[in-house]
Specification:
This protein has about 300 residues and is of the alpha/beta class. The chain is built from ten helices and eight strands. Helix 2 (about 30-40) packs across helix 6 (about 160-185), helix 5 (about 140-155) runs antiparallel to helix 6 (about 160-185) and helix 6 (about 160-185) runs parallel beside helix 10 (about 280-295). The radius of gyration is 21 Å and the shape is globular. It binds zinc ion (ZN). Zinc ion binds next to loops.
């Protein structure tokens, strides 16, 4: 027992002695924001999909592939969000790799299991499986903040207390944000139509009704057959607003409104593509979402 324990300690020694703030790579702006909150003044994580690019389809640059290979820690949502990243993350042999969707305690929802998937053709488009937009439930963001801190603390023990304190402050702020958004959205009674199937977590958590999505969860361009199904759903009643989305062509939303009499809301941005990356992005994204939905459908 004693021998095993010493051996384990010795194995840890080189890492502990050389520990310093690791190079950290994140996949999308939301994850970058959460990790930036945990790192605070200690460092800034790299962001792979910045500059307003859609994370669902993206081409990794060679310099980004190198950064991934050399990272001390990689935090990403998981292959459902960025399928193109799965092989690269698997091949990177250095450091910790954490797919946030896999973290214990994360509340997951499946595509096609909720009211926003009434349209019959979804199954043909392969929309089954885990819905990756899980940050839109702030409870998940809180769980991830704690896990990110734990991983960074283990890799960089000298700064463990700072990672933990930063994460605790961020979790408190997230709780307050959640309470504010609940209050803001309490008066929303009208159903909404959205540009892509990203809002299930937000709708479930805040009691909103997503009547239909113009595109599926992978944000691929909707076909004519699907669009006429959406129009039929809307004519069935319950929807008040249709929201264009950052990074998506607004034409299908505007056309649907013209056809059905829905009000066109301000463009919403569930992935933070139009918000400056940084620690503040998560709260800004969630607040803007709530404000714009409440302004149109409240
Ligand atoms: Zn999406």
């Amino acid at each position: 027992m004693r021998l095993t324990f010493s051996a384990a300690l010795l194995a840890l020694l080189p890492l502990a002695a050389g520990a310093e703030v690791p190079a950290v790579v994140t996949d999308i702006p939301v994850v970058h924001s959460l990790v930036a909150q945990v790192m605070g003044d200690l460092g800034t994580p790299d962001l792979l999909v910045g500059g307003g690019s859609s994370p669902h389809d993206y081409q990794l640059r060679p310099s980004q592939a190198r950064a991934l290979a050399n990272a001390g820690a990689v935090f990403w949502i998981g292959p459902e969000m960025t399928p193109w990243l799965a092989d690269v993350v698997a091949a990177a042999d250095a450091g910790d790799k954490m797919a946030l969707l896999d973290l214990p305690g994360t509340q997951l929802r499946q595509f096609g299991s909720e009211a926003d998937h009434k349209d019959a053709d979804n199954k043909d488009h392969g929309h089954g499986g885990r819905d990756p937009h899980a940050w839109l439930n702030p409870g998940n963001a809180s769980i991830w903040l704690g896990a990110i801190a734990k991983t960074l603390a283990a890799r960089d023990p000298g700064n463990a207390a700072t990672y933990r304190a930063n994460a605790e402050a961020a979790m408190k702020a997230t709780e307050q944000l959640d309470a504010d958004l609940k209050a803001r959205l309490a008066g929303v009674t009208g159903g909404i139509v959205v540009a892509h199937d990203a809002y299930g977590y937000f709708a479930d958590h805040y009691g909103l009704t997503v009547v239909a999505s113009l595109a599926g969860g992978d944000a691929a361009q909707p076909g004519a057959a699907h669009l006429s199904e959406v129009a039929a759903l809307v004519r069935g009643g319950g929807a008040k607003c249709v929201f264009p989305e950052a990074g998506h062509d607004p034409k299908p939303a505007v056309a649907l409104a013209g056809e059905t009499g829905l009000v066109v809301g301000e463009a919403i941005d569930p992935e933070g593509l139009g918000i400056a990356p940084g620690a503040e992005l998560y709260a800004a994204l969630m607040t803007a979402l709530a404000e714009k939905i409440a302004a149109c459908a409240g």
